[in-house]
Design brief:
103 residues; mainly alpha; two-stranded antiparallel sheet; 5 helices; 2 strands; 62% helix; 9% strand
Length: 103
């Protein structure tokens, strides 16, 4: 498994559902990972959507399709991936790289 996936899983930012051939086969080990990391990333997502225009745009687009909780968790997952790359590459946060729109 890729390190980025392991980090997102440890931060509880991904689902624990198991799929086979497109069908859900169960869930397991939902409490695996660090509860403090998921709390920190959700808090970061809440602040990001209030104070950053790109984050708010991403959140609003996701919320229009699902609901508030799933949109917040999706933004937290995006921030978790960004923090993984920041730690790995020793680079500061780049909002354009995090919320690139394929330009």
């Amino acid at each position: 498994m890729h390190e980025l996936c392991k980090f997102a899983s440890y931060a509880r930012c991904v689902n624990s559902a198991h799929y086979s051939n497109g069908k859900k086969k169960g869930e397991g080990n939902t409490k695996n990972g660090n509860a403090y990391l998921v709390w920190a990333f959700v808090e970061a997502a809440n602040f990001a959507r209030r104070f950053n225009e790109e984050s708010k745009r991403f959140f609003d687009k996701k919320k229009a399709k699902t609901n508030n909780v799933i949109a917040t968790k999706a933004l937290a997952h995006k921030l978790a991936r960004a923090s993984y790359h920041m730690l790995k590459e020793k680079q500061p946060f780049d909002v354009n790289r995090c919320f690139a729109r394929g330009e």
